Amino acid sequence: MPLTRCAWATGDALLTAYHDAEWGVPVRDESGLFELLTLEGAQAGLSWLTVLRKRDGYRRGFHGFDPAAVARMGDAEVERLMADPGVVRHRRKLDSVPANARAILALRDAGSSLSDLLWGLVDGRPLQPRRRRGSDVPAETPLSRAASRELRRRGFAFVGPTTVYALMQAAGLVNDHTVDCHRFAALAGDAA
């Protein structure tokens, strides 16, 4: 019998592999969260499949998502990326990545981290809303709106409430696999 998956994760092997192995798995390390923040920001207005296909280009272009290295990127490096078909060539989206790296470093300097900030929103445990259908999954929530405001206050860019909610889903802060999806139960166990 075939596995049941969230509806968005069917029809393409790359989407299915990402769904089955990564989406919703709790991510607490800084570079992993930075990567997801960047990719979710890049997705705005595009399909997730488009961004997944460019993931390696982002990893190359943004120094493996090492915040210290990315924070040092200047206009010339960003301009070079504007000509790179391996990333989404949108100036504001690309400019946001070094800005976000600098915001991550500012969190460090303040004795915190991006992980502390994000996971603090959910008291360190993934939310388990138990969505029955894909149509039950919101694009944003009151929590993602509050998180967006806090991230902006701390100098992050391209972090609207929809992008932040997508980050929360991808990084496992919220288990938005539908209850019939084969991944739901495994990730619901991460809340224990």
Q: What sequence of helices (H) and strands (E) makes up the elements?
A: HHHHHHHHHHH
Query: With helices defined by DSSP (H or I, 4 residues minimum), what is the helix count?
Result: 11
Total strands: the figure is 0
Question: How many domains?
Answer: 1
The 3D shape can be described as globular
Describe, in short, the structure shown.
This protein has 192 residues and is mostly helical. Helix content is 53%, strand content 0%. The chain contains eleven helices and no strands.
What does this protein look like?
By secondary structure, the chain is an all-alpha fold. It has one domain: Endonuclease III, domain 1, CATH 1.10.340. The chain contains 11 helices and no strands. The protein has helices spanning 13-21, 30-43, 48-53, 55-61, 67-71, 75-82, 91-109, 114-120, 142-153, 161-170, 184-188. The longest helix is centred in the middle third of the chain and has 19 residues, at 91-109.
